Amino acid sequence: MKKIIASLLLCTALIAPAAAMAKDVTITTTLDNYSGRDAYLAVYVTKPDGSYDSTLWVAGSKQRYLGDLRGWISAMTAAGMTTLNLDGITGASIGSGQTLTIHSNLADTLIDAGYTIHVESAVEQGGEYPDDAVAPITSAPQQVSGKGYVATLSVSM
Questions:
Q1: pLDDT tens track for 129-138
Q2: Across the strands, what pairs with 69?
């Protein structure tokens, strides 16, 4: 009996880490050439039902302008988030024609399961684009065109 229990524990110890595996995902967002101030971007993940899952990156350091990213804020609010905790996932705003590349570890359970990456963009005294670029999280590389300040969004593993 002790041998069977020990074998089961060993199998569980070997299998459990595999279930929690994550893939390094590269997300590259290139902005169009436009006139105006640098863009604020929110890069976040939504679940298959379209509800908010997590924030991967926010470009723009002045918190008073983050409210211009209304789609992202609305998605988080709908998910029950009442505070904005962005430690470690923020950087400077992104200028016209520039590229933002981020690396993130996404759980294997999100890949090919209907989850999507959204990039929302806003420019002070300019436009706001809640779903500027949206790409599915798949094992195959993805590249989509943006609708506003984003020229392209690429997602690869």
A1: 999 999 999 9
A2: none
